[in-house]
Structure formats: C-alpha cells, structure tokens
Design goal:
Blueprint (H helix, E strand, L loop, with lengths): L1 H14 L4 E8 L3 E8 L4 E13 L4 E13 L2 E8 L5 E11 L2 E12 L2
Antiparallel strand pairs: 1-2, 2-5, 3-4, 3-6, 6-7
Length: about 110
C-alpha cells in the first residue's frame, strides 16, 4: 500500500513537468523562424541554442552559434533568429535548456533556394 501511495505521488509531481519539442523551422530571407512547442507550464529564462552550419561537399562550416534566454508560454512559441544565408544547404542544431538541463534537441537540414 505504501508503494502505491509513493507511486501516485510521483505521478502527480511528474504531471506538472514541462514537455518541449521543436516544430517547423523556416527561413525568410534574413532570419530563421524557430517554433517550439510547450505542453507544460510556462517557463521563464529557458535557453534556446541555435547553431547553423553550411554543408559543403566534404565539410561543414559554422555560420552562426547563438544562445539566448527565452520565455516559453504554453502552446506554440515562435522565435526569430537573425542570420543571412546564401543559397545552399545548411544543417541546424537546435536545443532548449531549462534550469541547466537539456529538454529538447534536434538536428534539421535546410535548403535555401536561389
């Protein structure tokens, strides 16, 4: 019986935890638009880290590496990351940290048309 009460208490605490994930990422000529889904409680001072590398035939070249504080409201959040990308292929490394702990991370490929 004590184990059942302990398990229910743990589930109750976990129910309020934050769940984040990355949505669509687009490029609009002078900035990336990064969408982050938050299905949990609001969070102040989360860290959004964005690294953009240009992908060549046999190498990658870092174009941008930026980390900034963001507030996550429940639902979809959108952040603009200024960057000038020439036509080509890019790899995006996106990470959200909350209280120093990585909560979501994704690698996306992006093609910028001429």
């Amino acid at each position: 019986m004590g184990f059942l009460i302990l398990a229910l208490a743990a589930l109750t605490v976990a129910a309020g935890c934050l769940s984040t994930g990355f949505g669509e990422v687009t490029y609009g000529g002078d900035a990336l638009q990064v969408r982050v889904e938050n299905t949990g409680r609001p969070v102040e001072n989360a860290v959004l880290q964005v690294t953009v590398t240009e992908v060549g035939a046999l190498e990658q070249h870092e174009i941008l590496s930026e980390a900034r504080y963001v507030n996550l409201a429940p639902g979809e959040n959108e952040y603009s990351v200024p960057v000038n990308l020439q036509p080509g292929t890019y790899r995006l490394f996106l990470t959200i940290f909350i209280d120093g702990e990585r909560k979501a991370s994704v690698i996306r490929d992006l093609e910028v048309a001429p």
